[in-house]
Structures are given as C-alpha cells and as structure tokens.
Write a structure and sequence with these properties.
2 helices; 10% helix; 29% strand; Cyclophilin; three-stranded antiparallel sheet; peptidyl-prolyl cis-trans isomerase activity; PPIase cyclophilin-type domain-containing protein; nine-stranded antiparallel sheet; mainly beta; disordered N terminus; single chain
Length: 224
C-alpha cells in the first residue's frame, strides 16, 4: 500500500484528566491514498471504487507522566520552519512524515517516518546523531523516562500504565530508539509490547479516528 501522509496542523493545551493526565493535544491531518497511490480529487463517484481519505486525528499526550517522550515528540511537531532567510533547509517535521507499516504480528501501525532522516554512526558521541538529507546533523536524545523527582512533586515513580498496551489507539515508542517513529496500537491487547515500548499518549477515538484505524487494518498485505 501507498504511505499514509501526515501533517501536524495545530498544537494546543488541554485540561483533560484521566488515569494519565493529558497535557497537550496535537491535531494531525492525515490523508490516505487510493490503491493507485494518487491523492487528487476526481469525480464524486470513483470508477475504481476507491477515494482518498482525509481525517483529522487528535492526539492526547501525557506530558506529566511521559514528559521526555512528549518533549521529543513535540519537537517534531513544532519544527519544519526555515530558521533564517539565508537557510533553505527546513528541519525534520512530522508534517512531512509517513505511516509506513502495519506490523501483522503485533498490530502496531508505524508512523512518523520522515524522508531523508537517518541515524548516522560517523561520530563517536554518547548522544545519538541524526542526519537530515546530508545537510543537517541533529542530536537525538533517547526517549527515556526516569524516576527523577521533580521540584515540588511528591510522586517520583513512573506510572505502570506507561508499559500497558491494553487498548486500541495508544501512542507508543520503542525503547532506546533515537528515531522519531512512533506506533499506534490497533488491537485491544498488545502485551508483547509492554517490555519493549513506552506509552506516551492516545488518539481521541472519534469518528475520524475509527475510520482511520479501520482503513489501516484493511490495507492489503503481500508476501514474497
């Protein structure tokens, strides 16, 4: 299947509170191509029975419980601008990213793949370095949560819910992976992810989200 393109359009604060407190909401506009890979608008009735899909996913982020994950995620939501008039090389951004894979073994939909962004090993540094189109070198701190006690906080323990993949629509990131790719759970139980991934948010399960997840699960798969 063709990649699903995502564009981050809006960032706002939210006061929604649940078992894990939602501190930020990001709206990600997603379009899904036809089977022939095109997005352009045609007649209202499609001859091949398929039409591009446009949905707006609202992503709730747990900025208190998964503060480092959310901080790293938001960097790729807020980037993409030109830093100065003489610099024509934009920063890597989720606005240019793709959903690239639906893992059949665990049902994890992989998104946040930014073309031109890759891990480089040419520098001997403790912090991983990413290379963007061979024009920018960017430090990439690991997305790791710690038990460090914050000033004024009485709770210095990580919530066990950060390692509990027990429903659809959770946002998760592979531990020790410096790349900004993230996963969305498409199954109600993903216990095999608990030991290798950290949950840092969830999708608001409105009609757009349900339509998107149903579409992703119905994408054809091929074997060689």
């Amino acid at each position: 299947p063709e990649p699903i393109h995502a564009a981050v359009q809006e960032l706002e604060l939210s006061s929604t509170v649940g078992l894990l407190k939602v501190t930020h909401v990001v709206t990600m506009n997603v379009r899904v191509a036809r089977s022939d890979g095109t997005f352009n608008v045609r007649d209202e009735i499609e001859e091949d029975g398929s039409a591009p899909m446009y949905v707006a996913l609202k992503l709730d982020l747990y900025g208190n419980d998964a503060s480092n994950h959310v901080e790293q995620f938001l960097k790729y939501c807020q980037q993409g601008f030109v830093e100065n008039e003489d610099d024509d090389a934009p920063m890597p951004s989720y606005g240019r990213s793709n959903f690239i894979q639906l893992n059949q073994s665990d049902g994890l939909l992989i998104g946040g793949s930014i073309p031109g962004l890759q891990l480089t090993t040419q520098f001997q540094q403790t912090t991983p370095v990413l290379e963007f189109y061979q024009r920018r070198l960017l430090p990439a701190p690991l997305w790791i949560e710690t038990n460090k006690k914050e000033s004024g906080s009485i709770n210095n323990k990580l919530s066990p819910l950060l390692h509990c993949h027990n429903r659809k629509g959770l946002l998760t990131h592979r531990d020790l992976d410096p790349m900004p790719t993230f996963g969305i759970t498409t199954r109600s139980s993903n216990q095999e992810l608990d030991a290798t991934h950290t949950v840092f948010g969830q999708i608001q399960m409105d009609q757009d989200a349900k339509q998107f997840l149903n579409c992703a699960q119905d994408l054809p798969t091929y074997s060689m």
